[in-house]
Structure formats: C-alpha cells, structure tokens
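In the previous lecture we treated proteins in isolation. Real proteins rarely work alone, and many bind small molecules. This record shows how such a complex is specified: first the sequence, then the SMILES for flavin mononucleotide.
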Amino acid sequence: MWENNRLCRLLDIRYPLIQAPMAGSSTAELTIASSRAGTLGSVAAAMLSTDQLAEQCRHVREQSNGNFNVNFFAHIEPSMDAAKNAAMRDLLKPAYAAVGLSDVPEASVSSPSFGQPQLDVLLREQPSVVSFHFGLPGDDALQALKQYGARILCSATCVGEARELERRGVDAIIAQGFEAGGHRGTFAEPYEKGQVGTIALVPQVVDAVSLPVIAAGGIADGRGIAAALALGADGVQIGTAFLRCPESATNTTYRNALASSGDDRTRITQAFSGRPARGIENRYMRDMAGKEEQFPDFPIPNSLTGALRAASGKAGTGDYMSLWSGQAGALARDVPAGELIEILIRETEDVISGIQNS
Ligand SMILES: Cc1cc2nc3c(=O)[nH]c(=O)nc-3n(C[C@H](O)[C@H](O)[C@H](O)COP(=O)(O)O)c2cc1C
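The predicted 3D structure, ligand included, written as tokens:
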C-alpha cells in the first residue's frame, strides 16, 4: 500500500503527499486544507517576519489537526556590492518606466536567511516538521530542533547534495528535479550541478541514501505520483498544482498565465531574486537574459524587483511578474485544495490498480 508507508509514519500523515511551501503564493488556508486532507501542509516562512511566523503557526495549529511543516531558506547571507546594486538598478529603469513607476527602490536584504530569531520562534511553537531550501543551517540549530522532536527535511538537486544531507542528519530528503517550479534548491556550486530531471534524479537518490525520499518537480496528477512511487520515492511534494486552488495567493494575472501555459513555456531565470528559479517565460525574463553577472547576490534583487512585479500584476499583463511554475503547470486544476488532494489520491490509486491489472 502506498498510504501509511515509512514516510507517513515519520511525518504522521495518512497519504505521503506534501503541499510544497511556496513563499509569496501559499497561505495559511492552503496549509490548513492540506493538513486536514491527511497530507502534510506547509507554511512558507522564508519571507515572514518572526511575528507573522508565530501568528501563522498558531493559526494553522488551531484550524488543522496540528501537524504541519514550516519551511525556511538557509542561503548564505549576501554581501552588499554597491556597484552591482547600481548596475541592476540601471538595468531595471526601462522596466519600471514601462509599468508607469518612476524610481527603482534602493537595494536591501528583504528576507534574511534562517537564523536565531526564526529558531527562537520554532522552539516556542514546536511545529512537528521543519524543512529547508538552499541547504541546511548549522549543526547547533539542527540539534535544537531535533531535541524538541522536529522532523527535518531539505531539498537536494543532485546525488551529492542528498548524500551531504544524510550526513548532516536530516530525516528525509526532497529530491527536487529540474522540472520543479520556483527556486532551485541547489546548494552545491555551480548551479549547473542541480539540473537533473525528476525521473533520473529520484532513483539515483533512492540508491544513494537510506532515508525516505520525497520526489518533487513536474508532478501534478495521479500519473506523476504513481510514477514517482515506481521510481522508489516514498512520497511526493507538489507545488505548482496547488497554485490555481482558491486558497493560494495567486492573483488573476498569474492564474490566467497558468491556465494558458504549456509544457514548453517555462524557463530558469535569476532575474527576480538573484538565484535560479523556474517560471513562465515573460518579457522581463527575456530582457534580462545574459545579464546575470550584473545581478547582486540573492535575495537582494527581490528588493529591486518587488514594486515592479506588483505593478505588473495590477496592470494585468504579467510582463514583469515572477510567474513561478513547474513544467507541468498546464496540469494545475482550479479546484479547492481539499478537493484537489482527494482527486490526486483517487487518480494515484486508479493508476496503481490499472498497472497491477494490465
Ligand atoms: C510559486 C512557488 C514558490 C515556491 N517557494 C518555495 C519555498 O518558499 N520554499 C521551498 O522550499 N520551495 C519552494 N518552491 C519549490 C517547491 O518546494 C517544489 O520544489 C516545487 O514546487 C516542485 O515542483 P512543481 O512546482 O512542479 O510541483 C516553490 C515553488 C513554486 C511553484
């Protein structure tokens, strides 16, 4: 049986499915609906203040079964480079003019890497699962989380990263294939190391580690879930397929772009945040291609592009928005999250029994 397997037991869930944390797009309501449906809901905490983080943990705990994941970015803190900040601000001037805004904001660090303030909130709120993207924080932080009983997950985009995560003591590994929407979780340099597709990555990670492996990237229906299980994954983390659910914070422009997207519409870009991420290709991504050398370190570009993205969304064009999406974005369905999860479970069971009976 695919339900109640070792990942389910580890994470205390009925079905081995995780609603991916999606900073800027997932909401407490999405987390609540996913946890209520017998899967693991995730709070995307990378861009939350510590007050917002504590408030969201309490709200989700009260409204769900109390079992949820909280996710953070554990990137290396950026160094402020005045020349790069100025260069990117110059590059952005035509885009700002195009959406009717006059001034490109000053550069700042809009979201800090995981650190003591976030750890302090976790030690008080004690969510059952904590996941990381862009690598792990230091051993002291991991030990403190483990001491209260947190299960720790982290994304790997190649076998070497998966081995490193096992060595550092995580409880399960999210194998993020190249099809995945949003930021590549790659923490080994160079980024090109982490460009392995899900169907090639998952079985190789499964062979390399003894921990449960969670497949992520391009999985949006029961066929994808069953395929991931067939590759040896213990579970699946799904992001893009939830973006059209009413509980997601996706605005109308973004929803329309997803609804009309296709398998060939996404590209990897560094132009919004400074780190490679997959989204539906738009004018901004095309204009900024090849200029990566001039971008400041992640996440500084977020502070430069935030107002641009918001204005573009309001204008309804999407030309300058970050339309994060995996390669299976066209398979996303416009149904409430609880219903989507029921459909995914039914589809998976149909595919598995169809293969067994064929
Ligand atoms: C809109 C969006 C935002 C994302 N934000 C995060 C995030 O905050 N933290 C994280 O660990 N992963 C994030 N991801 C990546 C997901 O964890 C996961 O790897 C990805 O969604 C899987 O591919 P799929 O989108 O094809 O399902 C994001 C993905 C999307 C689509």
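Summary for your notes: Residues 20-23, 25, 44, 46, 71, 133, 155, 176, 179-183, 216-219, 237-241, 324, 326, 328 surround flavin mononucleotide (CB under 6 Å). The longest strand covers residues 68-73.
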